[in-house]
Specification:
Layout: H1 10-14, E1 17-20, H2 28-40, E2 45-48, H3 54-61, E3 67-72, H4 81-94, E4 98-102, H5 105-109, H6 113-127, E5 131-135, H7 143-155, E6 160-162, H8 173-183, E7 189-193, H9 199-209, E8 213-216, H10 219-224, H11 226-231
Parallel strand pairs: 1-2, 1-8, 2-3, 3-4, 4-5, 5-6, 6-7, 7-8
Helix pairs in contact: 2-3, 4-6, 7-8
């Protein structure tokens, strides 16, 4: 479903963004600061790369409607299904309310569809009812592989197909439209990550193309740019 910016205030727009902190040298002080920024900008979630920061993030987001977003198999996705399931279960026990898992791209390249499908099922079961996302790293996939990945996510009940980890190239606009069309009429939504510069223009273009959520380390900057994007005609004016 395409976002209708004409009916969205800046606070509303915040819910179109997951604020991510994925640096290798991330500190607790940075995590806590990021959580406070995510609350200020009314983001959908604060996301991080594993279960490690879950308790800290849960503490900071307590009493808000923001989701606690832990990564699983991040960023390569080459762990065994059992290891990914353990990561998911651990994160949920610690307080995660949404999970971002990484598909094994090599398995997709080798057409090991049954293995991928079983891993997706194991992941959904391990999540125990919390929101699930699957990162397919579409910059490494052909259009046909993107379509198959989307279909497998739908079939196994994953809540979001996510384009990218952000560690590699993000999706093209064409790939975003392809994913949107593959997911149309299903219960699986589309999240885009890996937004490249100029980030404000690209992020809003992805949303207008059919993404329902953007994951980015620059969420505050992109949300702050909303008025400028409206002024230059990239995003429709607010009409209430």
């Amino acid at each position: 479903m395409t976002v209708d910016f004409s009916k969205m205030t800046k606070k509303d727009v915040g819910k179109l963004f997951d604020y991510a902190s994925l640096a290798k040298d991330l500190t607790e002080e940075q995590v806590r600061k990021g959580c406070r920024e995510a609350i200020k900008y009314n983001c959908k979630a604060f996301c991080f790369s594993s279960s490690y920061w879950t308790k800290v993030v849960k503490e900071e987001l307590e009493g808000t409607d923001l989701l606690v977003g832990a990564g699983v198999g991040f960023p390569l996705g080459q762990q065994s299904s059992a290891v990914k399931a353990f990561e998911a279960e651990e994160a949920v026990k610690m307080g995660a309310t949404v999970l971002d898992n990484c598909m094994n791209v090599g398995n997709m390249k080798e057409k090991k569809y049954d293995q991928i499908k079983q891993e997706f099922k194991d992941y959904v079961n391990a999540a125990g009812g919390v929101l699930t996302k699957m990162i397919i790293e579409c910059c490494m996939l052909t259009d046909e592989e993107i379509k198959i990945a989307c279909e497998l996510c739908v079939e196994t009940g994953i809540d979001y197909v996510k384009s990218s980890t952000g560690h590699y190239a993000g999706p093209t606009l064409e790939q975003t439209v392809l994913m949107r069309d593959c997911l149309k009429g299903t219960n699986t939504k589309l999240k885009v990550s890996g937004v490249k510069a100029p980030k404000p223009q690209n992020a809003y273009a992805y949303l207008m193309a059919g993404a329902e959520l953007i994951g980015t380390q620059d969420a505050p900057m992109i949300i702050d740019s909303l008025d400028l994007m409206r002024d230059v005609g990239i995003v429709p004016e607010y009409k209430g």
